[in-house]
Amino acid sequence: MIFIFDFDNTLIDYDSDDLVLNYLGKPLTTKENWNDYMRDTLLNANKDITPALRKIIIRPKYAHFLNTNNCAIATDSNTYFIETILQNNNITGVKILSNKSEFVDGVCKITYPDNMCSLCKKYNCKGKLIKQFTEDICFIGDGFNDICAAINSDFVFARKGYKLAEFYPKFQWTPENLISKLYVTKDLLT
Asked: Among residues 142, 95, 151, which one has the least CA distance to residue 118?
């Protein structure tokens, strides 16, 4: 079995994009396209974002779990953010399924794939990302953007009080299309 985690509001208690935007003094205040806004803000950033990322702490029980189990992360964030945060929390060997990013001339450049989904409305559908795994999948997430990963998993742990726990049970499931077993929990590891 592989344990696949969402990142923002699951492994950490907030959204890493929001934290970086606030650090740069550029919080999203309009209804702009999120990906375009993140890409443009990072391209025009006037300071290094790495110190902000290094302040992010993985929820303590999850850090140990990630290091001692077969785990992956499926996220709408980007590889630079996730790799920096994992490294700072001494987490290694976790496969990252995310938007690609790299630093070029001191600027974080994000590449968003054309992996659009009609259900979750994301450019990088987590359901499509996790289909590469052949073993049983236990997905742990929180938001509506995790719905496609949940549908394509064998077991789902949805964070209590968040959108995934609210919306997943509302789908019109029949015995033929019910794929996942849902568990709503405050914290998977308690």
From this structure: 151
Which domains, from first to last, does the chain contain? Answer: 2-14+57-99+114-185 (3.40.50.1000)
Task: Check if the beta carbon of residue 77 is closer than 8 Å to that of residue 98.
Answer: yes
* Residue 5, token pair as written in the block: 């985690």
Put simply, whether the predicted model's pTM sits higher than 0.70 gets the answer yes
Contact 146, 139 (CB under 8 A): yes
Q: What is the pLDDT of residues 93-123, one digit of tens each?
A: 999 999 999 888 878 888 887 777 777 666 6
Q: Smallest Cα–Cα separation from 69: which of 136, 150, 2? A: 2
d(CA 109, CA 149): 26
Q: Which two tokens stand for residue 86?
A: 């994992």
Residues facing residue 96 across a β-bridge: 73
